[in-house]
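Appendix B. Raw example, untouched.
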Amino acid sequence: MRARPLTLVQDDLVDYDTAMERMTDLVGQRQRDERPDTLWLLSHPAVYTIGRRTPLTHLPDPTRGIPVVETGRGGQLTYHGPGQLVGYLIVKLDEDQGIVDYVREVELRLVEALGKLGLPAERRDTPPGSELLTGVWTVETGRKIISIGMRQSRRVTSHGFALNVDGDLTPWNWAIACGMPDVDMTSLNRELGTASMDEVRTAVAAAFEAS
């Protein structure tokens, strides 16, 4: 894996719409070479986000009271909420690297971070004709712990990943996550019995060479 040091930006709980406005601004700065490659770590209040291809049948019942927001990233429905670490990656790709290549790199870096936290994890290749298996799964239980959805514009990436740390997993069961009806979403707390958001932030930043 190539060296790719990133500048680290950290926040706690940021409203999703506010975060999208700031991310758009960061992408523009990177496209104009006004800022370096950046990893922004934060969390969101409860919200479902959907990609452009997400079927209506995958959405939650509106009576659950959690807003649903359409976003420009790839992928299907994802839930964000407190206790989840979100990472937005604003990175200018090399001429010989596409967004799919970079998503694979992101998966591998996150697998490394989870390993350092004591949880063996893996990325998966997508069988022909199946829903895209982007993200990270636990090795021992086969549950999905990280969702990834990204895009690129003028060679600069945006959006990123969501790692479940110690938040409530119930809202994942109110919708069809990642386009996979049978997916079992998990968290570090569920797998290990304990989880520290500060330790997770430190491990993720290290895996992305971010400071």
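End of appendix B.
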